[in-house]
């Protein structure tokens, strides 16, 4: 008995050291390992199935399409012959989420700096929780709020921006409105604030204490300490957080769908009503979609899936790079 | 962090005048940045307070017993009355089914990643996939279930289809939360158990999991709170109904998020009031779940030993 136990402990120790060998030959162990590994493989299969089925169901609609899928601005998959393209959707998605990222990143990093370095230490975790509450609010509620409250106040801001910065095409146009891509971007910016600030906070926490204290010891002010020790160290984390926020903004559906009023065609005047994103278009046109219409929506969803996948993978790679240096 | 608060120390105390003086320009810059950082935080509070305030004020109008007792069956958009009973039932059933499917898969996956995978290639691949899955837009999850369950297998819209879509969104969050908690369990505990001759699976089930349990429960509750507010995938999978449908396996069901979406689309003020009350109820449930999860997490953390 003793020797057996000893052998098993040794095996356990070896397993923890090497981490490769598994299974002690007991039935219970074998069943449990297969259940655990099976679940892991199920996750892989789900991911593969998502890509496979989206492609499969998109192909028939794409074959029927009489317009250029990539460059056409119209979306009439229910017509005969069906004509649809993603140009307008791609424009709306990319522009609204980039703008949201530009608005949210400085604020998010500022929040992270505030919680990590400026707020009273005792309050830090509580304040972090308050910011996380922003992430807990469901997107449908943001949509409702954006429609009923924010957009009313955005009209004035849009008019102001239009009169001051109207010479820049993006802020130009004759009739700045409240249901514009700009309003949608502000809602998106609020929604991605928590992720940017929480990832920035995570990297700020990892900044080596020695660097911080060295900066302070040579007489740096708090801002100089942050600029010398914190920001260079946290750069990849902040960039990664901003990109994760970008990915999330691109996939956000309901809030955008509620805030935007659909006007066909690309409009570079971001302050004017109109615009659509991949996700908002799916939510808005699904109920009336025919068979081809559904296929077309699935095809546009596939494009969204691929774009967010690339953005997220790039973001993870940037965040992970920091880990390797430590 | 204490050392950081002494950041202004060198400027203020002791030493000779040549060392203490911080030039005015540097001081101003420091103050300006401090102001900006405070401003950033306040800026984040504005939408939070505004959202909660608007929802509470507008939602309180219809927060009456009728709202919880009746469905929208035979109630048209401009009518007064009507309620979200059907939607609340739908949401609860869908979230329950989602949890029943997602939690076992996610917890077992996390166990595999922490306890068994080591540095193996499969473990790395799964871990990467979970990361990628976290970023899937919720509407894409809905489209996938639409393509697989409804269009390929030919099933009808149902609460179950909605649950399947939510499962995809819930799995990665629970895997990550469970993984974090399992990693916190000290190795000594596992080794002590092995030393007593306890097989590995019993060690995981009766030593590791109970130690990490509170953390896992917290993670699951936060994940439930998150999927409960998802609207987009449900639009494509459960569709709409105004009537009570207690059976999540057949026929379209309602849910709180789609109820809000439906009511908000109606121009009548009575409908919009119902949408706000729906939002208040939804946000109330989600905040409650969040608070309870925090409370559970604080009461007993696995690092206690």
What do these coordinates show?
The complex is a heterodimer of chains A (326) and B (305). Chain A is mainly α and 326 residues long. Chain A has helices spanning 2-18, 27-64, 87-118, 124-136, 139-165, 181-206, 209-217, 222-251, 254-259, 278-285, 291-325, and strands at residues 75-76, 83-84. Chain A contains 11 helices and 2 strands. Chain A has a two-stranded antiparallel ribbon with strand order 1-2. In chain B, α6 crosses α13 (256-265). Chain B has a single domain, classed as MetI-like fold. Chain B contains 14 helices and no strands. Chains A and B meet through α1, α2, α3, α4 and α5 of A and α1, α2, α4, α6 and α7 of B.
Per CATH, the architecture of chain B is Orthogonal Bundle
- Which range does the strand content of chain B fall in? under 5%
Termini separation of chain B: 24 Å
Mean pLDDT of chain A: 87
Which two protein chains have the largest interface (Cβ within 8 Å of the partner's Cβ), and how many residues from each? A-B, 114 and 113 residues
* Sequence of secondary-structure elements of chain A: HHEEHHHHHHHHH
Anisotropy-based shape of chain A: globular
Number of β-strand runs of chain A: 2
**How many runs of DSSP E, i.e. beta strands of chain B?**
0
CATH superfamily of chain B: MetI-like
Tell me, rounded to a whole number, the average pLDDT of chain B. Answer: 89
Radius of gyration of chain B: 25 Å
- End-to-end Cα distance of chain A, whole Å, is 45 Å
Q: Outline the biggest β-sheet of chain B.
A: none
Describe the strand arrangement of the main beta sheet of chain A, using strand numbers. Answer: 1-2
Structural class of chain A: mainly alpha
Give the tags.
heterodimer; A: 326 residues; mainly alpha; MetI-like fold; two-stranded antiparallel sheet; 11 helices; 2 strands; disordered N terminus; B: 305 residues; globular
């Amino acid at each position: 008995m003793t020797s057996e136990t000893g052998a098993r402990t040794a095996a356990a120790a070896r397993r923890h050291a090497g981490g490769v060998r598994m299974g002690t030959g007991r039935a219970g162990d074998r069943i449990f390992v297969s259940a655990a590994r099976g679940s892991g493989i199920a996750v892989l299969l789900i991911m593969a199935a998502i890509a496979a089925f989206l492609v499969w169901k998109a192909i028939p609609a794409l074959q029927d399409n009489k317009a250029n899928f990539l460059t056409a601005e119209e979306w009439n998959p229910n017509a005969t012959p069906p004509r649809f393209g993603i140009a307008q959707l791609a424009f709306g998605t990319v522009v609204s989420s980039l703008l949201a990222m530009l608005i949210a990143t400085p604020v998010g990093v500022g929040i992270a700096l505030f919680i990590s370095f400026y707020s009273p230490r005792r309050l830090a975790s509580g304040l972090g929780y308050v910011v996380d509450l922003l992430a807990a609010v469901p997107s449908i509620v943001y949509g409702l709020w954006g429609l009923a409250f924010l957009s009313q106040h955005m009209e004035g801001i849009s008019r102001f921006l239009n009169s001051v910065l109207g010479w820049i095409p993006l802020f130009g146009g004759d009739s700045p409105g409240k249901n514009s891509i700009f309003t949608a971007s502000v809602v998106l910016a609020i929604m991605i604030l928590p992720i940017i600030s929480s990832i920035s906070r995570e990297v700020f926490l990892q900044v080596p204490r020695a660097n911080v204290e060295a900066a302070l010891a040579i007489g740096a002010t708090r801002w100089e300490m942050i600029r010398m020790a914190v920001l260079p160290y946290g750069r990849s984390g902040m960039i990664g957080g901003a990109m994760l926020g970008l990915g999330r903004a691109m996939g956000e559906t309901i809030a955008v769908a509620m805030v935007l009023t659909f006007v066909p065609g690309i409009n570079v005047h971001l302050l004017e009503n109109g615009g659509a994103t991949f996700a908002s278009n799916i939510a808005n046109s699904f109920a009336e979609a025919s068979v081809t219409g559904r296929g077309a929506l699935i095809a546009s969803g596939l494009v969204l899936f691929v774009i967010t996948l690339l953005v997220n993978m790039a973001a993870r790679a940037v965040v992970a790079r920091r880990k390797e240096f430590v | 962090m204490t050392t950081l608060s002494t950041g202004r120390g060198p400027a203020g105390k002791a030493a000779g005048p040549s060392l203490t003086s911080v030039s005015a320009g540097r001081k101003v810059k420091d103050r300006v940045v401090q102001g900006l950082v405070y401003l950033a935080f306040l800026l984040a509070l504005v939408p939070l307070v505004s959202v909660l305030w608007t929802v509470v004020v507008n939602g309180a109008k219809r927060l009456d017993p009728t709202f919880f007792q009746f469905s929208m069956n035979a109630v048209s958009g401009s009518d007064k009355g009507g309620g979200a009973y059907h939607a609340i039932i739908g949401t609860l059933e869908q979230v329950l089914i989602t949890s029943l499917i997602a939690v076992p898969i996610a917890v077992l996956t996390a166990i595999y990643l922490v306890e068994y995978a080591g540095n193996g290639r499969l473990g790395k691949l799964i871990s990467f996939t979970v990361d990628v899955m976290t970023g899937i837009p919720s509407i894409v999850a809905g489209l996938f279930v639409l393509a697989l369950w409804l269009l390929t297998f030919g099933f009808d819209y149902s609460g179950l289809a909605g649950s399947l879509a939510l499962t995809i969104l819930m799995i990665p969050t629970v895997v990550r939360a469970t993984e974090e908690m399992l990693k916190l369990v000290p190795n000594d505990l596992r080794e002590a158990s092995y030393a007593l001759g306890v097989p590995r699976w019993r060690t995981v089930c009766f030593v590791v999991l109970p130690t990490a349990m509170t953390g896992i429960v917290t993670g699951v509750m936060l994940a439930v709170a998150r999927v409960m507010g998802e609207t987009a995938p449900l639009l494509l999978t459960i569709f709409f109904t105004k009537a009570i449908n207690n059976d999540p396996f057949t026929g379209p069901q309602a849910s709180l998020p789609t109820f809000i979406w439906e009511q908000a689309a109606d121009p009548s003020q009575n409908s919009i009031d119902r949408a706000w009350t729906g939002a208040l109820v939804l946000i109330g449930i989600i905040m409650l779940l969040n608070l309870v999860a925090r409370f559970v997490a604080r009461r007993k953390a696995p690092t206690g030993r």
